[in-house]
Every structure is written in C-alpha cells, then in structure tokens.
Amino acid sequence: MILVINSGSSSVKYELIDVEGPTRHQAGKIERIGEPGSPFPDHAAALEKAAEEVAPHADGLTAVGHRVVHGGAAFTGPVLIDDDVVKQIEEAVPLAPLHNPSNLAGIEVMRRLHPGLPQVAVFDTAFHSTLPPAARTYAIDREVAERAGVRRYGFHGTSTAYVSRVAAEMVGKPDMANVIVLHLGNGASASAVSAGRCVDTSMGMTPLEGLVMGTRSGDVDPGVIFHLIRGGMTPDEVEEMLVHRSGLYGLCGDNDMRTVLDRVAAGDDEAALAYNVYCHRLRKYIGAYTAVLGRVDVIAFTGGVGENSAPVRRKVLSGLAPMGIRLDPTRNSSVRGARLVSADDSAVAVAVVPTDEELEIAIETAAVVARTNSE
Ligand code: ADP
C-alpha cells in the first residue's frame, strides 16, 4: 500500500492506494494552510494531521510517493529519495519558486514521521524529458540559455502519462498510438505523445507558456513584458499579472469555466471574448500537434474543463472534419467516465479520460520500490 502526498502551495492532498486492484483507501485534502484563521499554520502541521488521519488505515504501508512539480534537468523519471535527491530538488527551486518549496516540506515531514519507509519523488516534468532537442530548445543565445537553465521542461507530466496510456488502450493501440492530450484544469496544457513518449508540450520552462488558463496568460509575445516594464511596471508586477490576473480571469473577471459559459449564454460580450480566445488557442495547438505527430490516433480531453465541459469540446473541435475529427453529439453530451466521444466515422478518435494523478504516482512509486528491492 502506497501513501500518496501532494503537498501544494496552500493545500495538502493525501491518499492511501493499493496498486493491486487498484483499491483506494483513506483520502483527504487539507486546505488554506497558512491563511489567517486556519488551524494549520504551516505545512508541517497539515502533514502531521494527514499522517494521523491515515495511520489507522495504514497497515501494510510500503512506501510514500510525493508529487514534485519541477525536477529540473536532473530527473527524467521517479526516484527513491535520499539526501542527494533532496538537494537536487532544492536546486530546482528557482525554476518553480511557487511549488517546489511546499513539495520539499512534504518530503521533509514524511521522512521524519516514517524514517523506515522508502520515499519516492514523482516529477511533473519527468514525462517530458523525452522532448526532442528541437522541441525543448528556445531559439535564444545558447550560452545564456545553458548558464541559466533556460529550456522547455513541460508540466502536467504525471497526468499526461496516465491519460495518454489510457487513451492509447481505448483505441486498441496500447504501445504505438499517437495521442494529443489536452489537460484543461485551472492550469492547462497540450501535449503530443507518440508511442508512449512525449514529443512536444505547450508549457515551457515554467507553467506559464502555452494555452489560455484560468488565471495564466499562456503564450504572449515576450516583447509585451518589456513594453510593460518600460511603461513603469516592475518585473514582479508583470509576473504577478501574467500568473494571477490573466487568462479567462484577466479577460472577463471569472476563472471558472462554468461561470464563463453561463455568462456567454446570457449574452455577455466580455465572457464571449474570453471563451473565444481560450478555444482559438486550443485549436491552434491541436493543429500544431497534428503536424508534429503526422498522424493522430486519438485526442484525449482531461482536467476539470476537459472532462466536464461538452460545449468546450464541441467548440474546439467544430469544423475539423477535413482533419478527420468528428464528434458524436450524443456521446459528447453524456455524463460518464472514460469514454470515446467521436463519431464512428471519425478517422481520429476523441476520448474523455478522467485524470488520476494520485493513482499514477502510486503506480510509479510502487515500480521504483520494486526495482530497488530487486537490485
Ligand atoms: P486543477 O487544475 O486545480 O486540478 P481541475 O482540473 O479540477 O483543477 O479543474 C478545475 C476547473 O474545471 C474549474 O475552474 C472549472 O473551470 C472547471 N470545471 C469543472 N467542472 C466543469 C463543468 N461542468 N463545466 C465546465 N468547466 C468545469
């Protein structure tokens, strides 16, 4: 049995998973860590509470699996955590200042509470370590890029690994499918996966590049940033704006797609523009990744928006029949779990696959422990 820990910036999610089966046991989420009035002043307090909650159900606990957002260039897969690994995760903090410190807090507390258990780090960036040089390299001064670690890393890798595998199985090509994964949650990314290997992804050195997100801009001309700084904003102000006050929220004041869609239906122009920009960007990436892959077997939608919003899927894929993409309206509108929503005569299958990052972390953690034990 694996304890999965996702220690984020203001919340800790935990779940006990038996990968045989798989069977899910105790799960929970502690939110608002460090906020005024919260009973949890810091991550240590929240994680101790989580450990207490799972203790009565943790018979046969064999390992702890941790979500770590940024593995930098060092990590291309999940690893058994030791002091060296912790040091390398610390070295990646400048690349993910909002995420890696809280992930490290989770690791530190769990190593203290369960010193005898193997602890494994599973990186959001690792699945993208197969990006070919042409896809991972920014066309900037090489020496500067190398000195500062500037390259594309990609994120949402754990989800993308899981969803691309399930989608490939759904179309009967478990080992050889070409898959476009659209992970549309608060953060959003598109990835092109060929035979289980990621060949392109829309997030870059940070999770700011690519698609329009709930509050993040996605792609902007870098010139915009300098224009704003010369106009009087500080670099921190520009970053804060691009990360927290852009995307759907920046365009219409709402970051929840449900609210945006309600406003569009009520004839709200600002919401309609936000929705159109969001869908236009997605269509561009689908076209781009179709060209990157050459042939697409399945487009897989996941994340809160991708799994639940039939109107977004319909709008994004409308008019793409010349590219072999045809939705089945009834399947698309039905509310069920993992399923194909394309028409029978669609050359490219379209799938909805609820993501399961916790299960994927548990599976990868169990694999690392099994490999270590057999060495
Ligand atoms: P996170 O990226 O934080 O893990 P999720 O993947 O759960 O978040 O996605 C959250 C988003 O999903 C919400 O902000 C909301 O916009 C969207 N969402 C959830 N349900 C629906 C729905 N029925 N229709 C449209 N959007 C939805």
TrEMBL record:
<feature type="binding site">
    <location>
        <begin position="256"/>
        <end position="258"/>
    </location>
    <ligand>
        <name>ATP</name>
    </ligand>
</feature>
<feature type="binding site">
    <location>
        <position position="67"/>
    </location>
    <ligand>
        <name>substrate</name>
    </ligand>
</feature>
<comment type="similarity">
    <text>Belongs to the acetokinase family.</text>
</comment>
<keyword id="KW-0460">Magnesium</keyword>
<feature type="binding site">
    <location>
        <position position="6"/>
    </location>
    <ligand>
        <name>Mg(2+)</name>
    </ligand>
</feature>
<dbReference type="InterPro" id="IPR023865">
    <property type="entry name" value="Aliphatic_acid_kinase_CS"/>
</dbReference>
<feature type="active site" description="Proton donor/acceptor">
    <location>
        <position position="124"/>
    </location>
</feature>
<keyword id="KW-0479">Metal-binding</keyword>
<feature type="site" description="Transition state stabilizer">
    <location>
        <position position="156"/>
    </location>
</feature>
<dbReference type="GO" id="GO:0016301">
    <property type="term" value="F:kinase activity"/>
</dbReference>
<dbReference type="InterPro" id="IPR043129">
    <property type="entry name" value="ATPase_NBD"/>
</dbReference>
<keyword id="KW-0963">Cytoplasm</keyword>
<comment type="pathway">
    <text>Metabolic intermediate biosynthesis; acetyl-CoA biosynthesis; acetyl-CoA from acetate: step 1/2.</text>
</comment>
<keyword id="KW-0808">Transferase</keyword>
<feature type="site" description="Transition state stabilizer">
    <location>
        <position position="216"/>
    </location>
</feature>
<comment type="subunit">
    <text>Homodimer.</text>
</comment>
<dbReference type="InterPro" id="IPR000890">
    <property type="entry name" value="Aliphatic_acid_kin_short-chain"/>
</dbReference>
<feature type="binding site">
    <location>
        <position position="357"/>
    </location>
    <ligand>
        <name>Mg(2+)</name>
    </ligand>
</feature>
<comment type="function">
    <text>Catalyzes the formation of acetyl phosphate from acetate and ATP. Can also catalyze the reverse reaction.</text>
</comment>
<dbReference type="InterPro" id="IPR004372">
    <property type="entry name" value="Ac/propionate_kinase"/>
</dbReference>
<keyword id="KW-0067">ATP-binding</keyword>
<keyword id="KW-0547">Nucleotide-binding</keyword>
<feature type="binding site">
    <location>
        <position position="13"/>
    </location>
    <ligand>
        <name>ATP</name>
    </ligand>
</feature>
<feature type="binding site">
    <location>
        <begin position="183"/>
        <end position="187"/>
    </location>
    <ligand>
        <name>ATP</name>
    </ligand>
</feature>
<keyword id="KW-0418">Kinase</keyword>
<feature type="binding site">
    <location>
        <begin position="304"/>
        <end position="308"/>
    </location>
    <ligand>
        <name>ATP</name>
    </ligand>
</feature>
<dbReference type="Pfam" id="PF00871">
    <property type="entry name" value="Acetate_kinase"/>
</dbReference>
<protein>
    <recommendedName>
        <fullName>Acetate kinase</fullName>
        <ecNumber>2.7.2.1</ecNumber>
    </recommendedName>
</protein>
